[in-house]
Design goal:
2 copies of one chain form a homodimer. Chain A has 280 residues and is of the alpha/beta class. Chain A contains 10 helices and 8 strands. In chain A, the strands form 2 sheets. Chain A has a 5-stranded parallel sheet with strand order 3-2-1-4-5.
Chain lengths: 280, 280
């Protein structure tokens, strides 16, 4: 069973995982490490980590589960740096929201037997330990993927995420990343684009109603965390953006021609999808 | 002072207003009317109305405040039908989210001296009395407008909305409607367009994380309520949609050319707007 968990990166994702683990009836010993000044101390003061390690490698060395909750490029770097440091029986996992780049690195490093990647779809537009909370993963879908089929560490990985309230499901890294371009990256850039359009007109968040607030909340997301994701996703995201742009142009045409029945049909179909998961 | 309020239309907006009024320390007598079968009975059973009138005109006749919370075209019709029915000292108001078409009708009917229009920016993608709640307007901006400057019934109108937690502010009907095209209608159609794109790919709401859920919530809005608004707003909305489509195409180009610093700048500016109401 899991008894010593190393959480590398104590921001929103890692901090929330550490908090949740320490709330379990039989909590594991949690080692934490974060290179952002002061963040580790915050996490220790909050009771989210038992032992704070200045060097991530020191947290890794004695853990039976190692979780990377660092930005994508940092995780890719650390995996290589820590290659000799893992216990041979340790589960190595990560929470990156794209699994393809991590899987590729894992395979290149010969770590496939120890790695089960995870993407918990809890999140927020805030970042940092200050934004973390023990219930971030409650009810959240957690996508799991591995570089080999029927991974022997699969059950341990599932149990880890279930223990903090997540709902694990297995996926293929490529299929997962394609889906993320649609369900995560596209909405993110739409929120940015809408916010930019409103800002250009001199409108403020305070001018918005509840719907407009929902539609611009993601504009607060961290550019630093998003850039590597957008870069890795660019080949899928660019066509998706163009397709959406085309449908906005079509809508504009329909409005110009006052073809209200087309708008009615369009809204009714999307409403059916939203309310009943049906696309009429 | 306000002692008898007629609420015409007991859906989300009217139902919430009636509920809130009946929770006041000194609640007015609330007359309600709604042509949707069963809705009035729901409102009476919930204690939101004291007297239910089958014909809207009967609710209007004895009221010192008449609130139209019906869809835009219905409000336009009823104003004409009720013209002879208002008490001469009654404040006539409405909650339509576009003020220009209502103002035009009011002027044509010679009702300017009795009308102060309102647009409370509380709302939800749900509709109907079932979705109403007493705190819908708590903290909500309520735009007020009139067909004459410094309207003598302005203070009564402000007091009405303040009593249910709203934050009144005065605006010009045209300027208001132009702003709504940006802050309300554009986000609405964006949510529909994103939902349609996801649906076309076979993705369900359950596939989304918190951000994607926020960005598609409005797709559940009622087409019937929205069509008249979109039609009245079409001349402003179509250009806004095309401009947004253009910025999505630009983003796609930037991603294709892997010009990540441009994306970084773009996201940082929208984040500054979101977090600090600043457009860098």
């Amino acid at each position: 069973m899991t008894s010593r968990v190393a959480v590398i990166g104590l921001g929103l994702m890692g901090g929330s995982l550490a908090r949740a683990l320490k709330r379990l009836d039989e909590p594991p010993f949690v080692l934490g490490s974060d290179l952002t000044a002061g963040r580790g101390d915050l996490a220790r003061a909050a009771g989210a980590v038992d032992e704070l390690c200045e060097r991530p490698l020191d947290a890794v060395a004695t853990a039976d589960v190692v979780v990377y909750a660092t930005p994508l490029p940092v995780t890719l770097d650390l995996l290589g740096q820590h290659l000799e440091g893992f216990r041979p029986d340790a589960l190595v996992t990560d929470v990156a929201s794209l699994k393809g780049p991590i899987k590729e690195r894992i395979v290149a490093l010969g770590l496939s037997a120890q790695w089960v990647g995870a993407h918990p779809m809890g999140g927020a537009e805030q970042s940092g330990f200050e934004a973390s909370r023990a219930d971030l993963y409650a009810g959240a879908r957690v996508w799991l993927t591995a570089a080999v089929g029927d991974h022997p560490m699969g059950p341990r990985s599932e149990a880890l995420w279930r223990s903090v309230g997540g709902v694990p499901a297995w996926t293929d890294a490529d299929a997962h990343d394609a889906r993320m371009a649609s369900v995560s990256h596209l909405p993110q850039l739409l929120a940015n684009a809408l916010a930019a359009a409103l800002a250009e007109e001199g409108l403020l968040r305070g001018d918005l109603g509840p719907g407009g607030l929902d539609m611009t909340r993601l504009a607060g997301s961290s550019p630093d965390l998003w850039l590597p994701l957008l870069e890795a996703s660019a080949h899928r995201l660019a066509p998706a953006l163009r397709e959406l742009a085309g449908s906005l142009d079509d809508l504009a045409d329909v409005l110009d021609s006052h073809d209200l029945s087309a708008v009615q049909t369009f809204m009714a179909r999307t409403r059916a999808w939203k309310e009943h998961d049906e696309w009429g």
